[in-house]
Amino acid sequence: MEELPNCPKCQSAYTYEDGNLLVCPECAHEWSSSDNEDENGDDQKVVKDANGNVLQDGDSVTVIKDLKVKGTSSVIKIGTKVKNIRLVEGDHDIDCKIDDFGAMKLKSEFVKKI
């Protein structure tokens, strides 16, 4: 019987296969077995803008769509420039500070790299 690798997130030994994925029942982390062979659990998420350019911390981006600010009647207009972004985990994967709005989180699909 093939021994499965430990979970890269919590190091649990109780991983199991589910189709092409490996699953940890303790922390619910899922990953593919090819990821484990290539990177040894050191998975870095690649964040891309609307045009497919890879984004990195410190990049400058432009908003490509009018974005409503949740909880207010404000709108971030198309063409708004955002400098010195920071990439974070989650659905809204860009953390930034926008002039006249303050600190915000944006989705990478609504920006393009300058």
TrEMBL record:
Pfam families referenced in this protein's UniProt entry, alphabetically: YjdM, Zn_Ribbon_YjdM
Annotated coiled-coil segments of the chain: none
InterPro entries: YjdM (IPR004624), YjdM_C (IPR013988), YjdM_N (IPR013987)
Domain named Protein YjdM C-terminal: residues: 47-113
Residue ranges constituting the Protein YjdM N-terminal domain according to the UniProt record: 3-32
Family indicated by similarity: Belongs to the YjdM family.
Protein name (record): Alkylphosphonate utilization protein
Native species: Paenibacillus allorhizoplanae
